[in-house]
Amino acid sequence: MARRAVQFRAGDLAERFDLALRGDPGRVVEGVGTLAGAGPASLSFLANPRYRGQLATTAAGLVVMRERDAEGYAGDVLLAADPYLAFARIAALFDQTPAHEPGIHPTAVVDPDAVVDPAAWIGPLACIGAGSTVAAGAWIGPGCVVGEDCEIGAGSRLVARVTLVRRVRLGRRVLVHPGAVLGADGFGLAFDRAAAEPHWIKVPQLGGVQVGDDCEIGANTTIDRGAIEDTVLGPDVRLDNQIQIAHNVRVGAHTAMAGCVAVAGSTTIGRYCMIGGAAGIAGHLEICDRVVVTAMSLVTHSIREPGEYSSGTPLMDSRSWRRNAVRFKQLDALARRVGTSPKDTG
Amino acid sequence: MARRAVQFRAGDLAERFDLALRGDPGRVVEGVGTLAGAGPASLSFLANPRYRGQLATTAAGLVVMRERDAEGYAGDVLLAADPYLAFARIAALFDQTPAHEPGIHPTAVVDPDAVVDPAAWIGPLACIGAGSTVAAGAWIGPGCVVGEDCEIGAGSRLVARVTLVRRVRLGRRVLVHPGAVLGADGFGLAFDRAAAEPHWIKVPQLGGVQVGDDCEIGANTTIDRGAIEDTVLGPDVRLDNQIQIAHNVRVGAHTAMAGCVAVAGSTTIGRYCMIGGAAGIAGHLEICDRVVVTAMSLVTHSIREPGEYSSGTPLMDSRSWRRNAVRFKQLDALARRVGTSPKDTG
Amino acid sequence: MARRAVQFRAGDLAERFDLALRGDPGRVVEGVGTLAGAGPASLSFLANPRYRGQLATTAAGLVVMRERDAEGYAGDVLLAADPYLAFARIAALFDQTPAHEPGIHPTAVVDPDAVVDPAAWIGPLACIGAGSTVAAGAWIGPGCVVGEDCEIGAGSRLVARVTLVRRVRLGRRVLVHPGAVLGADGFGLAFDRAAAEPHWIKVPQLGGVQVGDDCEIGANTTIDRGAIEDTVLGPDVRLDNQIQIAHNVRVGAHTAMAGCVAVAGSTTIGRYCMIGGAAGIAGHLEICDRVVVTAMSLVTHSIREPGEYSSGTPLMDSRSWRRNAVRFKQLDALARRVGTSPKDTG
Questions:
Q1: Which ipTM value was assigned to this complex?
Q2: Topology of domain B8-94, CATH
Q3: Among A199, B93, B264, C53, which one has the highest count of C-beta atoms within 10 angstroms of its own C-beta?
Q4: What beta strand segments (E) does C37-167 contain?
Q5: Which of A129, A222, A337 is opposite residue B219, by nearest beta carbon?
Q6: Residue B5 pLDDT level (bands cut at 50, 70, 90)
Q7: CATH: 2.60.120.260, 2.160.10.10, 2.40.30.170, 3.30.360.10. Which one for C162-309?
Q8: Residue A338 is nearest to which of C204, C314, C337, comparing CB atoms?
Q9: Which carries the bigger pLDDT value, residue C1 or residue A181?
Q10: Is B247 an annotated catalytic residue?
């Protein structure tokens, strides 16, 4: 494990990221900071207008911002049409995630029928099962369990304590955070109602999970293997923590989901969708491209038009809420009294 | 670890599962597939009427279906009153979960005061604590941690990276998926309001968890130990992923919960209930047998009548939603204006 | 590992916890029980009035209760103004969590650049990364992964299979339950809309996580590292299982959250708040001290007044629910028909 000391000159950053510099090209930055917290050796950024007032007092040595925000600011500036995007790219220079020499840690357990590229790293106390392959530049962190018949693409990284159960295929540069479980059995049950004591029979889950290039999968997120065919994430799908993706779900490229979303089985979600935190999506639906679902909404029918969708009620003080909520039970009666038919649309 | 190559003749399947065969008893199947994806060497099934149209084009070699659906279908058919159930049973033949020779992997850490049956398998990097017992045919997968005073019944299987903290007793044939945590402390707090700075005092959690025969517990699901007595799951309880079962909860036999359900402390749930995804059930309630709760509903009172229950509002485009949702705050005023009393029922 | 046999005389308990004893000081108790389940050698308690009726039949040897509840009860009693709090303190005597001799288990993997106090315990198959420190009396249970640059304060305990990814600093006496992940990357994405195929760019997550003294963090709970500065939990914050705390969140001292709560990024929550199960709190908000949010409510705006807040609709049988829920879509039209303006407040 090696760490880099990092230091960059403003002029070099401008050139490297194709940004205009307004100020001293010799300005040196050694890290990043918020406008409120950064010091003279730090790079900061202004993207959200609500923080514009902090420009007056920031001690940041170098700030990435839009040209119009830079008017009247006396410090050194990198001008960017999209400052958050430019900051994301520059900040990667300061990401000191430790690098590891390739190889297999002596405490790791690698099945003789697994194939690990010599340019991959298998960390301490990790476990690789039979029939699995780990490509060059992949990183299997401490305590990960990779089961049978999995493929880890080049440059993919299981941070630590990730589980790939069986038949999970990750593309290239996939990043999986700790506690994530991919390829566990989907929740498939048949009910034996004819038995003396009726009971559930498990439906074998025989499919796998496919994860496209450049996906990111959050901590403690679960993606079940398909019942027969695979559960599929397209490229560049971004999943936050504690998301549940049930069996046979298909998620289109570039779709992002915030924490705690639950997607039920066999639903197909399009490309460039954005699903808000703790939203739920029922099973066997089709959601088209470019759909936005707001936080904690429940999607119970297919969506065929791009746009933003919501359910739920607004937050109130509980006393007011109780007074109003009890009336929800009378809503139909109320509407009838006012003479509205259930078919009328607002 | 050994894998079986599997191949079955239609006539043998008909006999073994007591189904009528319509077609060629010599038809050979080597795997399963969906109607749309199966080839001539695959078994498929038709249960959901919405897929009936796929019969016209399926290449499946053998299809399990109801007699009435088979009319006019020219291929080989296994007739079943409940095709999904029959398929579940047959498909188990194709489940190539690797088998392990019994024994304890050299990298596992087994406390000298634990008792492991010679016919059990303890996988790599697993850990078994003092006072725990593992019965014949049980499987403790890679990276599992079994703490103190646990019992793993015959044929039960912790897939990988499961944690049983303390005093967890699993019956026979229990299946626990990766990341599940059973027997962590319940969330018990007493508030010391008399202190100079009022603060929380932890209430010791001294009970355990009992899990009945044939239960299945999903990935990253958590079941806390009881405060004094045990948290209890009856036989054949089926829990999907990311479910939270708080301390002292009791769940009756054959109840199934979809992903992300949360059940608060000391609630009792009956037999044959079905709880939809991400539903919440408040604490100290009693839910009778055969209750269905729809997805994302919140149960805040005991339920004494079998049936289906819901809360929430329908999904709308966000513009319409905002226009209507703001009116929820006026609902009581509205009802008063129309002359409805809060006691009126629809 | 050693276990204690525990036995206490009522008179000694009264003295030790400064409670009045009504009854036999020689009464011996060896464990705890519920009023319904306790035997003559067990200590029980009565705090919730709904269990008062069980006093008539309890076999408990010794009961902690309020003076007014003790009237007419013939058994041995410890009188307490707050019986639940008194019980919490006494019951800790019966908590037989096994103790470990300090030291590093031979199967643990400790980086040469980590510093472990000789009075700490590192359990089997745990992993401690470079630059991390473990203080005296700390306990790193089986299968835990502590990454780089973490600090574990004196007396803190990672029960088992906990992951601290990077730059996580735990205060003293912090208790973290299995499956919890602290310090994973926050969900920071910038959208490159100018690319030929527009796509997400990861915003490096460079901050850490700070956890104050006496916090408790539930099983499978996730707390992300800050993007630039730290995600912060004040002292005595109590988090139940499966909670998601996003990057840059700040939670004030003594705040408690029930299971499955989700808090989005950069939100600040005050002191002494209580957040109900599965509630959601949107990002970039400020919640003042002493706010209570009821279960499954969604907080979408900042809260500046202490008090209780709710959203959602009541549970109904699904038939009634459907009849009323469909009318929610007409709510604005309904209100207009009745002549209410959207600005009117109830």
A1: 0.96
A2: 3.40.1390
A3: B264
A4: 42-45, 62-65, 76-79, 103-104, 109-110, 115-116, 121-122, 127-128, 133-134, 139-140, 145-148, 151-152, 157-158, 163-166
A5: A222
A6: low
A7: 2.160.10.10
A8: C337
A9: A181
A10: yes
